[in-house]
Amino acid sequence: MASSLPSGSLVLSLYLLLFPVCLATDSASITYHGGPLLTGNLNLTLIWYGQFGRVHKNVIRAFVESLHYNAGANLQPQVSSWWNVVESYQEVAGKGSSPINVKVVKQVTDLKYSAGKAVTSEFIQKVLRKATGGDSNTIPVILTARDVKMQGLCFTKCSQHGMLGDHQQPYIVVGNPESECPGSCAWPFQKPDKGPLSITLNPPNGNLGVDAMVVAFARALVEAVTNPYKTGFFQDNSNNANKTVEAASACWGIFGSGAFDGYTGKVRVDPETGGGFNGHGSRGRKFLIPAVWNPKTKSCWTLL
Fold first, then answer.
1. In degrees, to the nearest 5, what angle opens at C-alpha 298 toward C-alphas 190 and 197?
2. Residue 77, preceding bond cis, omega within 30 degrees?
3. Which DSSP helix (H) or strand (E) runs through 130?
4. Residue 12 — very low, low, confident or very high, per pLDDT cuts 50/70/90?
5. Global pTM exceeds 0.70
């Protein structure tokens, strides 16, 4: 049976007794502002920008598959349960209730770094136009290799979503923090650059870079769906373009119940690999999935 606490649980238990205060979320209430959401079939174009290994690609694709995968009664909790909470935003917005089917329909590889090695707004436009060829029926996702610098990455901008062109085509960019800023964007798999004492976890898929990218990708995907055009769900007093608190950022640093600053909350540890996780997915993969704001309970929701 998998443990519910990482190694070093005695230290962690003492820490919990000394500092039993959970992360406050009441001040980060997310409300609906009347704009459209992304619903129905979401076709993704994955853009592998730079050098990626097979593990990275397999894990990211398995995460997307896991959003709709039934892992079975013996493999609980499931990533798909987390996605069900994201789907519930439609009902709260008065737009009915139906599955949001996310599927990878195209993959593009750019091994030659055609737009350079620094992600800026100009970089994003150039890469997206080249990769999509003007097709506005997909949601492009740029995944950058570890040697690509992402502007703002060291300030917890681990991923982002936005709009491109006259058609306001939604897009997502996910940075790999393994080399540039692991202390900012790879926690809880890496000790943070600042903050309180923190117990780190082994990455569930054995690779710090890709497991951190899954966390960042999950956050950006949630927020692209629930606030694609900056008129959907977000915190009322955060409508500044650079400081918008959305469905995932409202629950930053929370991965399980009982979380507080420097502690992920309840997670499980794979007895075979030692990797920390909270959700089962496709291909036998395990993932650590961040908390998401539940619009019905008006609180942060986790798989454990």
1. 25
2. yes
3. helix 121-132
4. very low
5. yes
